[in-house]
Write a structure and sequence with these properties.
Elements: H1 14-22, H2 24-46, H3 50-71
Length: about 70
């Protein structure tokens, strides 16, 4: 269906946006990253380490990129 039509990772056409919105894998990955992010933020309240802060930063960036890809 999408072979050799120029639809790649950064494609912003309406069809690709709709596929990302309705994809269970895509939403599942974003939801799991949100759960991990909340857990890490809760864990950081009690014990703050550099690893936790770096992991929180990376997860926030990944989640933000995921939601931006859905919106735009």
């Amino acid at each position: 269906m999408f072979k050799h039509k120029g639809h790649g990772f950064f494609c912003r056409c309406e069809t690709c946006k709709f596929r990302r919105k309705t994809s269970l894998w895509y939403m599942g990955i974003l939801l799991s990253m949100l759960i991990i992010l909340m857990w890490q933020m809760l864990f950081t309240i009690f014990i703050t380490t550099r690893f936790n802060v770096i992991l929180i930063f990376i997860l926030m960036i990944c989640i933000l990129i995921g939601f931006i890809r859905i919106i735009f």
